[in-house]
Amino acid sequence: MEFDERRLRAVVAIAENGSLGRAAEAIHVSQPALSRMLGDLEARLETKLFERYAKGMVATQAGEILIEHARQLTFDIEQARHALQELRGLRSGQVRIGAVAATTRALLPRALEKMRRQAPGLKVELMEAPDSELTDALLDRRIDLIVASDSISHADIEPLSYCDYEDSFQVCCRAIDPPVAPDCGLSEALAQDWVMLKRGRTPRSNLEALIKAAGHSAPNIAVETNTIGTQISILRNSDLLGWLPLAVIADQCAAGQLQVVEIPELLMPRRFRVYRRKQGYFPKHTRLLYSCLTG
């Protein structure tokens, strides 16, 4: 049978969003229309592509096979569009970029403004997430560039130039009635309760490595969360310690809500660079954003 782009994008959207409702919203169709589209496709293929559960939808083995090829085909179609758009210059198009939180506070806004001055017609889709999620998004072709630290390493991802931007992870806590002094030692800090991202996330792993290198055991993580915003809210309203990029907490520190705890053993400077997939077309408008990030 023939596969049109609309059906392929529908399959990918269901896989990425996990439900018909969210997928329909993502590709701007009604849920009944998407349901009919999926039903028609399954009937034509004579196989079920997704299992329906109360909490969402999960791809079958056949669905997984189709999803992999659908991602590749829709990516190739998009690349062809980009190439044709370049014949008209930079008057239109879309740049999809993923970035870690620290770079979205200063580096990305400056680069995007610089890009928009040169190509005001371009649209930008920005994803903020930890390194591991950005890596998956780049490999799944949901984004075209990553701005992150040196921690990304994958056979199918190419590291490009460094950005003119640096930051550091530091211990922090609330500024009003803080649980420790700003110059407390490592042992005292590790005796406190902490709030951190969940185990396995890159910042958590990096902190644990620094603590181990200093000859200590990890502190008690009283609260685990999956977002930096939640960490900041908890730090402002509790006696817990945290470990966050200075760029992320700069506004809270300036407002007298949070303060840095100077512990040299847990200070981790970072440089940031741009990454792209090794294979695939590098569109002109994506190259423009890359130059704005690194130039």
From TrEMBL:
One Gene Ontology CC term in the entry: cytosol
Keywords associated with the record: DNA-binding, Transcription, Transcription regulation
Any one GO molecular function term: DNA-binding transcription factor activity
Pfam families named in the record: HTH_1, LysR_substrate
Domain HTH lysR-type, residue spans: 1-60
Family that this chain belongs to: Belongs to the LysR transcriptional regulatory family.
PANTHER family reported for this sequence: HTH-TYPE TRANSCRIPTIONAL REGULATOR YBHD, NITROGEN ASSIMILATION TRANSCRIPTIONAL ACTIVATOR-RELATED
Stated name of the protein: LysR family transcriptional regulator
